[in-house]
Specification:
The chain is of the alpha+beta class. It contains 1 helix and 6 strands.
Length: about 140
């Protein structure tokens, strides 16, 4: 009977070890997902602010000189593994993830109306050209 106790004890310790590994994996997986989501939201905000700054610079320069100006902005193709798009309308731009994630960020353009050629600008090209002519961006 004594040999059976040792076998059962070893099986119990093995099961407890497996349960601990599963619990640790689940905990870190959950933390990783929440951190990835927060990082994506922050990156969308920062990239949107960068694009807004470029639009405002072009608008201010073009408006003050009455000339046509274009600005080439390089943008990352992905943010935290997510392709994204830029949409404009009603004096703001919207940066949103296109990979089925719900993250998006709307940024104010201080009343500057913009039009994006072909509707949306996708990050897959890695660039955005901001063009100002005759009071329009």
């Amino acid at each position: 009977m004594k040999g059976q106790y040792i076998t059962l004890e070893n099986m119990f310790f093995f099961a407890v070890g497996i349960a601990m590994v599963i619990a640790i994996y689940a905990t870190f997986s959950s933390i990783s997902d929440s951190m990835r989501s927060a990082a994506l939201q922050e990156q969308l905000t920062k990239e949107g602010e960068s694009i807004c700054a470029g639009i405002v610079k072009v608008f201010m320069a073009g408006n003050s000189t009455n000339s046509s100006i274009s600005l080439f902005l390089e943008i990352p193709k992905e943010l935290s593994g997510c392709n994204y798009k830029i949409t404009s309308g009603e004096g703001s731009i919207l940066a949103s993830c296109t990979d089925g994630k719900a993250e998006s960020e709307s940024l104010n353009l201080y009343g500057i109306e913009t039009t994006i050629k072909n509707g949306d600008a996708y990050s897959s090209s890695g660039k955005i050209t901001v063009f100002y002519s005759s009071g329009k961006i």
